[in-house]
Amino acid sequence: MAQVKLKGNPVNTSGDLPKVGATAPDFHLTDADLKDVSLSSFKGKKKLLNIVPSLDTPTCALSTKKFNDHAKDRGDTVMLVVSADLPFAQKRFCSTENTASVKTLSMMRDRNFAKDYGVLIQDGPLKGITARAIVVIDENDKVVYTELVPEIAQEPNYANALAALK
């Protein structure tokens, strides 16, 4: 179990992020078209998982826009934004904010992704959704970088996450 803060108050997560060098846990999430997707849906691509509590918060929106700007130049990489938001809200966000270069994925059908990646918040006002984290996975599904952002309201380290994609 890891601990992060929400506006200075400690909250606990369900576990720890996957270890660098480990095979990334498979996942089953829902895309904007209500289709189920898994890790194998992105076979052969590098994957940056921008795990956020909700796109309907300023920091989550900002990180999604920043990764979207970098996704435009990376044909070998998919930038996935994983949140508890419904696919309809994710689609509306991407349309309104012009973030078509990232792919949003929803945990609407189950929370196993959040448990398997160790980011499911166990207590506090955000119990049941995710802490903010970055996981970079190579084209062979090995974890090459992780960051559990220590304060949920804080942005991730973009430079380190993007450098891990090289």
3D structure, described in words:
- A hairpin with a 5-residue loop joins strand 8 (133-137) and strand 9 (143-148).
- The protein contains four helices and nine strands; from the N terminus they run E-E-E-E-E-H-E-H-E-H-E-E-H.
- The chain is 22% helix and 26% strand.
- The radius of gyration is 14 Å and the shape is globular.
- It has a seven-stranded mixed beta sheet.
- The chain has a single domain, classed as 3-Layer(aba) Sandwich (Glutaredoxin), CATH 3.40.30.
- With 166 residues, it is α+β, with helices and mostly antiparallel strands.
Largest sheet: 7 strands, mixed
Helix/strand class:
alpha+beta
What name goes with the CATH superfamily? Glutaredoxin
Give the name of the CATH architecture: 3-Layer(aba) Sandwich
CATH class: Alpha Beta
Query: What is the CA-based Rg, rounded?
Result: 14 Å
Shape: globular
**Uncertain ranges:** none
Number of strands: 9
Separation, N- and C-terminal Cα atoms: 30 Å
Strand content: 25-35%
Q: Please, how many helices?
A: 4
Element order: H for helix, E for strand: EEEEEHEHEHEEH
What name does the CATH topology carry?
Glutaredoxin
Oligomer: single chain
Strand adjacency order, main sheet? 4-3-7-6-5-8-9
- Helix content bin: 10-25%
Tell me the number of structural domains.
Answer: 1
Mean pLDDT: 94
